[in-house]
Design a protein that fits this description.
This protein is mostly beta strands and 127 residues long. 0% of the residues lie in helices and 50% in strands. This is Cupin type-2 domain-containing protein. Residues 41-99 form the Cupin type-2 domain.
Length: 127
Amino acid sequence: MQLIRASHKLETASRQPTETFTGTVHMDPIFTADDCMGNNVCFTPGARTFWHHHERGQILTVTLGYGLVCSEGQPPRRLQVGDMVHVPAGEKHWHGGTSATCMAHTAISLGSKFAYSNWVMILAELD
């Protein structure tokens, strides 16, 4: 068992590279294990992940602001504080802020240590 206190503060919180996100994204790693990992992620307005999928799925809990989540072949869906999203294993999707609002969420990615996320392609600009 691993207990992560709400007051945890890691010096590794950082702005993330553009290879996996559009816009400015800050990530605070919470934990990493052999079969899952957790991050607090803050998306500035217009910032989003690229299309990606997870070996065993992903769980998102929105903690701040308003955002969007989208699965392949579906229209984007609006998110707000308190919403939870379960993305099934292998489902291609993206998530992030709206064009006008930031969003923060806690993301739990499931899968083997070296296959948490499989980045597929750059996300086109949304109208």
